[in-house]
What does this fold into?
Amino acid sequence: MSTWSVVFLGVIAFSTLVMALIQVGAIVYSAMLARRIEALLTRLEKDVQPMLERVTEISTEAARMSALATQQVERVDQLFAEVQDRTEHVMTVVQQAIITPAREGAALFGALRSTFAALRGLRPSANGRQQRPPRGVEEDDALFIG
It folds into this structure.
């Protein structure tokens, strides 16, 4: 073997040794970095866990409140429907008990008034002349079909 080949072989061996040391250093550094990241994640997990529990509590409470609000809205809707039904019933009763008899009474009084007006129109007045029938009587007679 020549001297140059021994020198090159030594350079190759030295280069391989340097590469091996760099690789071992990179592996050691990676392991240390992995431990630090793991410790950081553990700490972050411990810090975030109470917040996540609180968010879960808030979410559960919001869902419960939403369900209660929905129930209350349904109750109010039922109440208004019941009030509307009762109001319609009261209006029907009022119409049957008051308005219909009032109309019939008004018609009766109108008939009596027309009858008295007609009777007054046929009777002679105090001065001996027959009075002219009231205005409405002549018009009503013209419209009568019978």
